[in-house]
Description:
Blueprint: H1 9-15, H2 19-43, H3 47-69, H4 82-85
Region (Disordered): 72-93
Amino acid sequence: MSSHTALTDLESRLAAPDGAVQRDAMMARTQGLARRLRAELDAGLSRADFAAYSAVAAAADAATAVLADYPLSPERGGDASAPANAFPSFSPR
C-alpha cells in the first residue's frame, strides 16, 4: 500500500483497483476531444475561435500526457513512489 495521500478525486480514481481502466478511459476522452478540436481547426474558424480551440486542444494533449505518465500503484504495474521522486532535490550553491 502506498503512503501517498490522494489530494484530488482524480488521484483517488487512479489509485483504485481499476485505476488502469479509469486512466485508459480518460485518455480516450482527452484524445477524442483533441481530435474533434483539430478537425474544427482544420475546417476553418474565426481568429478568436481559432485561438480558443487551439488552447483547448493543447490542454487536451497535455492532459493525455499527464495521464499517460501517471504512475499506478505497484500491484497494477506502476511505481507509487514516483510522484514524490518526480522533483529533484534542491541544492543551494
